[in-house]
Structures are given as C-alpha cells and as structure tokens.
Hints:
Largest sheet: 5 strands, parallel
Distance between the termini: 121 Å
Oligomer: single chain
Number of helices: 6
Amino acid sequence: MRVSAAPRPRRSDRAGGYGAPPLPVNVVGAGRYGAPPLPVNVERADGYGAAPRRSVRAGGYGALPLPVNTAVSEHYKTLRGESVSGSKKIKVLIAKPGLDGHDRGAKVVARALRDAGMEVVYTGIRQTPQMIAEAALQEDVDVIGLSSLSGAHMSLFSRVMEELKRRGLSDVLVVAGGIIPDEDQEALREIGVQAVFGPGSSTQDMARYITANVGAPA
C-alpha cells in the first residue's frame, strides 16, 4: 500500500506568508518595520530626525549670519580688483609693442591681475602702437599695461599714447613695465604713463595701484 507524504504547508500557512496573520512587532528592534519610531538623538548632528549638521556651525544653513568685518571685506575686494561700491570688474589690456619677443614677465603680470579678480586681455608680442590702441578701443578697457625689454620704450610708448589720444582714450590708465632706466621714468610720466613697474616689482602692488587709480584723473 502506497503511503502519501504529508502535504507541504501552503504559503498562507507559513509564518508571515500571504494571508497569514502579521508577525508580532519586535518593539525592541531598532527602527524595524512596524516598530515605534526611535527617539531622536539630539546629540548626533546627522541622526534621523535630528537637526541638519550645518545648522550647528557658525554661518551654516539655518544659522544666524556671521557679523561682517567691513575692513576685511573691503581689503579683499581691493585685492580682487573690485571697487568697494561693488562696480564691475576692472578690464586690463596687456601689450608688448615693437619687436620684443620676450613675454614671460607680461604673462606673469597678466595671470596675477586675473587672479586678483580683473578681466585681462593679452594681445601677444610684436604689436604696433596702432594695433594696441585699436584693441583698447574695441575691448573698452580701463587700463593698458605696456611692456618693453628692448630699450625702445621711449619711442614706442610715445606712439602708443598718441594713438590713444587720437581715438579719444586719454582717460585710460596707462602703466608700464620692463627694463626701463630711472632717468626715463619721469619722461614717460610726462607723456601720460602714470606708473612704471620695473624688475622685481610686486604684482600685488600693481593690483592695488590699478584698483586705487582706475577712474582717477590723469
């Protein structure tokens, strides 16, 4: 006689199966489904239900704003090339007139002024005075920085100043750099070059001078 095996329990007969009564709630389990919510751990900055982490930090989300140190704020605005009144960025044209092909120093200055928050246009080497003046007009710059290492700064810078006046750009601040003897610096100031920065000059000093003198009468 064949003996039949005991029937396997249906899914509905299994603990927690479909149609079966729900399992008892494990009230001891931490956060299990069906368990009451855990109390908020207010000591944890990122616990579930706790306040956001940044809210407990100075200046964080939801916190009161930090007091503004006006003197420090204005100092960093100056270094970034911004006026304290919040005007637009200062725009600078860096140019090398004549046949001088050494532009490493000009690139260093251009990068430093850009890092100080100014907008910088570098025209490249071997520019004619006409090309420099026309670029200044088209770019609507506030400052022109001329660089020369060839010794022809007096004639080249004079021609640049003439071309600027011809285009009505006499109000643009013009500064110069390169190998320029002390005895030539006063002559350059007389033709309208307002500052000369020789070898070893600090780029931070250049940025401060430009920020302080843009818009000032020549």
